[in-house]
């Protein structure tokens, strides 16, 4: 089997130069966005727009794989969608096919390399295939070690490439349904898109941890995307979510569904953090609009943690919805205390801490005239390390805030995520070893309260046990071995690149 060179190799215009530095360290947990479109003459442009709408899910690399009905082509590069696909690149790709899948990627610092950009295009005994993955496979290292032991060669250090090797295994090809068989081997979180010359295949892990939805453009033309915001930008009509454990094939005969697990044999474990932070407020995921869920979390926070103050102000951008809910419930006026630059990246998904700090400084400015002399209720969506929150609180103080009462619209994050969101290690999570009072002290603010776990889960409509909230509770819906799952891949990467 060979991994095909991307169009990026053929049309290199410099957007992939970062990868040439060859730096690779730390873990490979990722949080990504998927977009696929079948049977549309403007497939490539639609894919470009869809990836733009999903840019918040990953800013390190982007890629589009295209089918002309017989052959697959792929272009990947480092950077934002607009960097990887400037008009001079997008234009020649536009006429290449009516079916495409695309990917935006976020990883931790270690794996921000072109080799890990997706879609991954490969050629094996059954022909060409491209894959795009959102989530994290917790058994990827074990599988990879096993396959390397049989002489398999891998191009990157991501957990997604193993899927193609599994598909290419002769004993798997001999199964009645090789795709279902292979998906049954995977453990962890995966929303997947596969592109083959004549079809797209979409699949979602049995717990439905990451979102994936289906929309329709016109008769015979379908979209599959991580979030509904990518349907909206293309004026597509939402049909339904891909169900947990489901495989949906889209070809010239329409949609075809089958299950590799279930249906309804596994209790869902939708990632609650998608609702808190990651998904776009305009999107509907897990059956609920994200903005409305965040507003309700703000209302619930006001019920649980009232305080006498002059104004409610959000830390932009994610806490805006929750702050609106808090203000509405509490009756305290809402005011904008920060301005935000739209030209700086999201700090949480910047891979390096110094870069992240700089990104915060470049991104946020306090409106002194609003906060000076005021007792503030500041709303945050979540606190991870606490370092950037401390910086924001300090900025409010320097601007003359009289009191700062921080209210967080989620519980304390005490445990790492193994299913595709890059929280740091336990030790780096500020709430892991500190009490709320100790965190308040560290942040140098007047009071601090978090939303309770039960309160958070009361804001979503599915049963509480249908969500993963392991980063708050430590109750992982799929058993993980931290020593192996979280850090072994890091050691593996060091072995490869040190
Ligand atoms: S551990 Fe947290 S971030 Fe990870 S899937 Fe569960 S809820 Fe989401």
Protein architecture, described:
- The protein is α+β, with helices and mostly antiparallel strands and about 500 residues long.
- The protein is built from 21 helices and 25 strands.
- The longest helix is centred in the middle third of the chain and has 15 residues, at about 290-305.
- The protein is globular.
- Bound molecules: iron/sulfur cluster (SF4).
- Iron/sulfur cluster (SF4) binds near residues 419, 468 and 470.
Question: How would you summarize this macromolecular structure in one to three sentences?
Answer:
By secondary structure, the protein is of the alpha+beta class. Helices cover 31% and strands 25% of the residues. Helix 11 crosses helix 12 (320-330).
Which architecture of the largest domain per CATH? 4-Layer Sandwich
Helix and strand composition category: alpha+beta
State the CATH class of the largest domain: Alpha Beta
N- to C-terminal distance = 27 Å
What is the mean pLDDT?
Answer: 88
Are any ligands bound, and if so which? iron/sulfur cluster
Strand content: 15-25%
Q: How many domains, as an integer?
A: 2
Uncertain ranges: 4-30
What's the story with the biggest beta sheet? Answer: 7 strands, antiparallel
Strand ordering within the main sheet: 1-6-7-8-9-13-14
Count up the helices. Answer: 21
The helix content is 25-40%
CATH 4th-level superfamily of the largest domain: Aminohydrolase, N-terminal nucleophile (Ntn) domain
Indicate the overall shape: globular
- The CATH topology assignment of the largest domain is Glutamine Phosphoribosylpyrophosphate, subunit 1, domain 1
- Number of DSSP strand runs: 25
What would you report as the Rg, rounded to the nearest angstrom?
22 Å
